[in-house]
Amino acid sequence: MLGTKEANTRLREQVTRQEEGLSILENTRLGMYLFYFWLMSWLFLSLASEPVILLPELGGRVGSMERDLETAKAMIGRNAEALSKSLEERRALEGELDQIHNVA
Q: What's the predicted TM-score (pTM) here?
């Protein structure tokens, strides 16, 4: 009977050690999952932060380009008006020149 008690005690100790080992493995697995989650979150945020940081700068550049475009449109409009007036003046001068040639 003494041998059975000792064997039973050894088996219980083994089971206890195995349970402790399983507990450690489960905690390690959970720790690894948490580490992977943290790592992936960190990578995502570090990659996503670059475009987010650049958005205001990009918005400023777009605004600047829109203002430049409006300025260019206004200049083209003024130049087209000046060219139109110049063409009218030239036609008027050519008409006067034709009249002078016809009189002479």
A: 0.41
